[in-house]
Amino acid sequence: MNPSASFAMPRPDATAAAEFEALLAAHRGILVRIAAGYAFTRPDRDDLAQEIALQLWRAFPAYDRARPFSTWMYRVALNVALSHRRRAHGRGEELPLDADGLDAVGARDVDAETRERLALVQRALRAFAPLDRALLLLHLDGLSHAAIGEVLGISESNAATRLGRIRQQLRRLDAAGAS
User: Fold this and answer.
1) Global pTM value
2) Residue 75 CB: number of other CB atoms within 10 A?
3) What is the rounded CA–CA span in Å between residue 152 and residue 156?
4) End-to-end Cα, the chain, rounded Å
5) What residues contact 105, with CB distance under 8 A and at least 6 apart?
6) Mind listing the pLDDT tens digit of every residue in the chain (179 residues)?
7) Residues 170, 120 contacting (CB under 8 angstroms)
8) Are 52 and 81 in contact (CB under 8 A)?
9) How many Cα atoms sit within 13 Å of 11 on the Cβ side?
């Protein structure tokens, strides 16, 4: 017997595949935002989004339906994105933000000031450590401190404290950009 066979995940059946597709479609925004937060060119974002979807599919048999799909999806997506960044960083790749980078996070039809603020957030995402980047993305998605803590495996108070520090860093970046 193959030793790794005992760790193989069961393949989802057709019903589970349909459920997965429906859940993925309903929460597609998570996939897009995580990919945009960790990959800064369109081809890289597309590759990362595809890798996240593949890993979600592979892990789906282990998804506990008693828990919110979005929380589970965030956790898997962030783990894949962090691995992606580590691989890219190991190859010495820069993190350019291409011209359509803001459009990936829904900034197509916004005024110049809003685009400038979104560009600030994108610059901050590139500068922040992986955990802080994840915290900021989850916060921007409207998750509560408790939900952020659950996704990232930290306490609610730790999430709140770290987000306070991130806000201070963003204010400093904004002030530096305005001068």
Assistant:
1) 0.65
2) 17
3) 10
4) 66
5) 32, 33, 36, 37, 118, 122
6) 444 444 445 556 788 899 999 999 999 999 998 998 888 788 988 999 999 999 999 999 999 999 999 999 999 999 999 888 777 655 544 444 444 444 444 445 557 777 777 777 677 777 788 888 888 888 888 889 999 998 888 999 999 999 999 888 888 877 776 66
7) yes
8) yes
9) 3
Q: Which residue has the tokens 């197509």?
A: 108
The span from the CA of 152 to the CA of 173, in Å, is 25
d(CA 8, CA 30) in angstroms, rounded, equals 27
- Residue 63 DSSP code: -
User: Domains plus CATH for the chain?
Assistant: 15-92 (1.10.1740.10), 109-179 (1.10.10.10)
Measure the CA–CA gap between 144 and 83, rounded to whole angstroms: 25
